[in-house]
Amino acid sequence: MRAAQYDRYGGPDVIHLAEAPTPAARSGRILVAVHGSSVNPVEARVRSGAFRFVTGSKFPKNVGMDFAGEIVSLGDGVSGWTVGDRVWGFTGGLPLGRIGAAAELLSVKPKWISRAATSIDLVTAGGMPMVGSTAIIALRHHAKLVAGERLLVRGASGGVGSVAVQLGVALGARVTATASATNLDFVRSLGATEAFDYRTTRPSDLSAFDVILDLSGTQVPDYHRLLARGGRMVTTAVNNVGFFLASQLLGPRRVRAFTAMPRTRYFADLAELVDSGRIVPVVGGVHPLAETAAAHAALESGTRGKQIIDVRA
Ligand SMILES: NC(=O)c1ccc[n+]([C@@H]2O[C@H](COP(=O)([O-])OP(=O)(O)OC[C@H]3O[C@@H](n4cnc5c(N)ncnc54)[C@H](OP(=O)(O)O)[C@@H]3O)[C@@H](O)[C@H]2O)c1
Q: Which fold would CATH assign to domain 131-257?
């Protein structure tokens, strides 16, 4: 089968189209014909060699952590699914483990998928599982955001942020967003009441928030001070580990970092949010499988929403 792979660490252009062994639906697994996949930032860091002490020197390496597609066969012991079902999900494990959704076929465990949203095509859907489930886990599960609260989303124009702004609005929060200057109107169009340029805005320029979702990992202590009484801060990208640990142990107003481990229920919640129109996918670009390198390059140069890989193009 065709798959995007790389044989050495480096820039986006190390990724190329390869002929990979065709997987079978092993016992307890589901084989999916992938229509769409996407690029997530951590994958670009793995590809660059930033984690080579963990990811080692065994090549080729696959790319793509999330996907949408159709079931083509079921392994022994799998129930509740039928060949032809439209599904979405992620490849399981961490990006440092076995990934490879940017390929024609993918073998997955049932707990990593749900039925895909029915209101969008399966290529667009391939960009939603990681960022959508991360936003849901952050705002609903960790921050427990409720209607009427003031939410700040830092990094609102990217993959997770563009979903989080919409989810915050759907949950009844008043959303403030930070993004770069050229993206301020864009994040307002997603539902943010206020938008600030993170390059020119100081934390002290902003008012208090009940929940802060930090997607940048910068100035975490300065933004943490903006939390109102009972406020919660959730971050996906902690650079200041010392502050984070101290806050977990000592602070009454905690900052919580997390690594999203999505499961069926989060993907199913996401499908419901998309099909009800409360979350609209934001597509920054669509690239044929053979041009997966361009999707990585586009992510690294900073884009709105998601860079999608059209696996069948
Ligand atoms: N822990 C987890 O499970 C998990 C899951 C998903 C993602 N993540 C992490 O979460 C982060 C965001 O992911 P993503 O997919 O949304 O990435 P992305 O699509 O690359 O978006 C990142 C956004 O951050 C903005 N940004 C950059 N520097 C900023 C700053 N100093 N202040 C505020 N905003 C800034 C950029 O805005 P402009 O383009 O407008 O400059 C960009 O839109 C990444 O670090 C990713 O690895 C973690």
A: Rossmann fold (3.40.50)
Read off the pTM.
0.95
Which residue, 257, 274, 42, is CA-closest to 142?
257
Q: Which residues line ligand 1 (CB under 6 A)?
A: 40-42, 130-131, 134, 154-155, 157-161, 178-180, 183, 198, 215-216, 218, 236-237, 258-260, 299, 302
Separation of 266 CA from ligand 1 center, angstroms?
A: 20
Q: Which atom of ligand 1 is nearest to the CA of 183?
A: 40
State in Å: Cα 41 to ligand 1 middle: 8
Ranges of CATH 3.90.180.10 domains, the chain: 2-128+281-310
Q: At what angle do helices 129-136 and 159-170 cross, to 10 degrees?
A: 50
Looking at the chain, which residues constitute the CATH 3.40.50.720 domain(s)? 131-257
The answer to whether residue 94 scores a pLDDT higher than 70 is: no
Query: 2-128+281-310: CATH homologous superfamily?
Result: Medium-chain alcohol dehydrogenases, catalytic domain (3.90.180.10)
| Protein residue whose Cα sits closest to atom 19 of ligand 1 | 158
What are 2-32's pLDDT values in tens digits? 999 999 999 999 999 999 999 998 999 999 9
Residue 260 pLDDT > 80, yes or no?
no
